[in-house]
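Researcher: First entry.
Model:
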Amino acid sequence: MTAPSLHVLVVEDDPQLRTAICDALGAARLHAVGVADGAAALDHLTFEPAPDAVVLDLRLPVLDGWSLLAWMRREGGLRHVPVVVLSGAPLEHLELVGPFEPAACLRKPAGATELLRTLQQLLGAPRDDGG
């Protein structure tokens, strides 16, 4: 069996949700790394190879998702990494991320199927249903 080739960084402060997302991505043959706050994500993005995509909550401790997304868009090597915003923030707050060009915005509680479908469309990732 070959190792997963696509790397997704999951930035979510809820440990149960972060684990569930990483498990679902792993089951779909995506390599997922989860971090609990924006500062940990900043460290990961600074010192590790760029991920193929980021799943990002907006309301995070230490460094919020808006600030992390703004930083990513200023960084040359990360500017084009697709970011899927996954947040329970009110709709009007999600509209504020528009200038930072997220690839998609999903409202919590988005299901694993919706998130996987979104990532597969963005990354051309393999589908578990044989497609």
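Researcher: Second entry.
Model:
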Amino acid sequence: MSDDPILARYRALCLSLPEAVETITWGEPHYRVAKRIFGGYGEEDGRTVIGFKLTPEHAAAIVADPRFRPAKYGGRHGWVSMDAAAIDDWEQLRELVLESYLLIAPKRVAARLGEAGTIAREAPRKSTARTTRTQAKGKRTANARRTAR
């Protein structure tokens, strides 16, 4: 599978997303963010498939296309398998992978993507332990004022 051009392109697509990593899970490549799977590549019923999670509504609609079907495991939760041999539009696949990633990624990580799905520059953080303690103290003071009323 290492010389598979579809896998190479899919891998590059998945790993271009912030904090995405590849793991071998159940003997096949899977892509994770914050330890949670957002995509996979492997065999299902003798066919090479790409898997991803969609919103329930989107998953229900897309399986009307013969290239897609509910994933064997997790299909009832929005996971869809796509026949890898039937990929004819890599832009569509990029959008599906991005949807899956955004459903799975923590908000702080997903926020690093620009509107067009490109990686945005991360703003420098000003937060320090001292700032956090000060903010917490301010919240306690505000809460005390509210309860005193």
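Model: Note on the second entry: The beta strands are 20-25, 28-33, 36-44, 47-53, 68-70, 79-83.
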